[in-house]
Amino acid sequence: MSLRIPSHILSALIATGFVLSMSSTAAWSADIDLAKMKVEDGLPKSLTGKPGDAKKGRSAAINRKKGNCLACHAMPVPEQADHGDIGPDLDGVASRLTAAEIRLRIVDPKAVNEDTIMPSFYRTARFHRVQKKWQGKTIISAQEVEDITAYLLTLKDKN
Ligand code: HEC
Fold this sequence. Notes:
Layout: H1 7-15, H2 54-62, H3 93-96, H4 99-107, H5 142-152
Helix pairs in contact: 2-5, 4-5
The protein binds heme C.
Heme C binds near residues 13, 86, 87 and 152.
């Protein structure tokens, strides 16, 4: 893969530990049972058993220390200037993907596309050489996965 990542984005990703997610072997974090999961089904169940809060999800998605989704995706977030275009525009994503598909994309995009550069936001087990402060930790919490999923589900095509 010969994607070029602008250096300011790359250093932001390194700083937040995202680059760690580019290595791969198998196994998952926490309570997700990979053996029982089929990629085509996505992750239909809420990770917390509770519905997400779309408003909090929007904040977590655009927070540079949390989702940092804007590093790679355009989103309907006019108050922030720099939106990346490495990934698809997320405006309208709810018209393309289901909640289960969106949740899986956030938890572990490599389950969908093993070559993706999108970080796995809720998986710890298959990373190598993780700095101490990141060991056993996911980039965002289970509730933040739910909140961001709820937010993305509000992004339907307008026509
Ligand atoms: C380092 C870059 C990067 C970051 C950060 C990133 N993504 Fe992605 N994302 C991608 C790329 C590239 C794709 C395209 C599909 C692929 O690579 O498999 C993608 C695809 C997606 C898709 C599927 C879109 C579609 O229309 O099929 C969703 C949903 C998504 N990302 C959500 C998010 C969310 C939410 C965040 C923040 C929590 C995020 N991404 C952060 C790079 C990124």
